[in-house]
Amino acid sequence: MTLCFLYITFLIAVKKIKEGCILVIMLKFFKEPEAKETIQDKEKVDKLYKNYRWKIMFYGYLAYVVSYVGRKNLSIAAPSICTSLGWTNENIGTVSSAFYLTYGVGKFINGLLADRSNVRTFFSTAFICVAIASFCFAFAANFFTPGTALLYALCFLWAVNGWCQSMTFPPIAKSLSYWFTNSERGIRWSIISSSHQVGVVFAGIIANLAISRFGWQSAFYAPAIISALVGILIFTQLRDKPTSLGLPTIEEYKGEIDSNGNSDGKVKNNDGESNYFKTFFKHILGNPLVWPYLSM
Length: 296
Prior knowledge:
Elements: H1 2-30, H2 42-69, H3 73-85, H4 89-115, H5 119-139, H6 148-165, H7 169-179, H8 182-193, H9 195-214, H10 218-237, H11 250-254, H12 276-285, H13 291-294
């Protein structure tokens, strides 16, 4: 009995160590990169800023178009799914609700996480996870016969997709804040915002073409492949803040200071330290103008 107890204790200890190692690896993977020594060569600074500012806009726009391709496909594939699985609109509504539940909660939580994470790894991971969730959603129909088990499985997988989708926009918002000054962000935000409509159009085109040729499951396989490719592109092409490349902050580079008197765009407390939670509770939750919207 003693040996058996020690053996079980040893297995539990090994498991905990492995779990701890995985957690450490994940934290390192998503950790914001340290600021590098500032490059003094103005020509090199100009070249790097021009290169990455263009990439931020291009890949940010492309990413959100693809994001919509991987979330609006359910409504387009719904008639084919109902015919194939014998579902009703109520079943589709249940699956769709699972997505928006996790998407809404995830948008808030992942916004906080993204602000403290490496844009490159956080952004690319989001699309790889979207790809996996979309692929599994379509593939699950091969393992379950139409019924309650399949409905629960697809609800779970579409909810996972919703959470992963909620990870896609916060890195874009962070990148725009760090690579463009206040006076430049208006036009950039308006350009990025148009990606929603473009994404809906492409979602319809891709899903309808796929369904007409290969069936409803291909409406999820195709976005999965595209999302995985976008995730790889983001990882290879984007970087985090300018300071992680040895560049000055965008305010220093452009000679602009924000409304708080800072040159890095961060809200700081009296000690000069960033305090996101204090800002959130004091200026957002503590703002009476926000309360009517929270009560809706």
